[in-house]
Amino acid sequence: MANHKATRKDVRQSAKRRDRNRYYGKTTRNAIRDLKAITEAGKAGEALPAVASMIDKLAKRGVIHKNKASNLKSKLTKKVNALAK
C-alpha cells in the first residue's frame, strides 16, 4: 500500500478511472454485439451511428486505440452495408 498522501490519492483516482473505463468498454461491447445480431437493414442502419459514436468516445478517452476504433467502425459499417444489399 502507498505511504504518501499523494500516492494514496493517485491509487483512489486510478481505481475510479479503471471502473469507469470498464463500464464504458463493457457497455460499448454490448452495443456492438447487439448491432451484429440485427438482421434487418433498416434497424441496423439506425443503430450504427450511435454505436460508432460510442466507439469514438472510447478512443477519445484512451480506453481503446484510435486504430482499433477505426477498424471496429469499418467492420460494422461493412456488415450493415451487406445487410442493405
Summarize the structure in words:
The chain has 85 residues and is mainly alpha-helical. It has helices spanning 5-37, 41-61, 66-84. Helix 1 (5-37) packs antiparallel against helix 2 (41-61). The longest helix has 33 residues, at 5-37.
Task: Give the SSE layout.
Elements: H1 5-37, H2 41-61, H3 66-84
Helix pairs in contact: 1-2, 2-3
What's the helical proportion of residues?
Answer: over 70%
Number of strands: 0
Helix tally? 3
Terminal CA distance: 58 Å
Give the low-confidence spans. Answer: none
Mean pLDDT: 96
Please trace the helix and strand order, writing H or E for each element: HHH
The largest β sheet comes out as: none
List descriptors.
85 residues, mainly alpha
Brief description of this entry?
This protein has 85 residues and is mainly α. The chain has helices spanning 5-37, 41-61, 66-84. The model has no long low-confidence stretch (mean pLDDT 96).
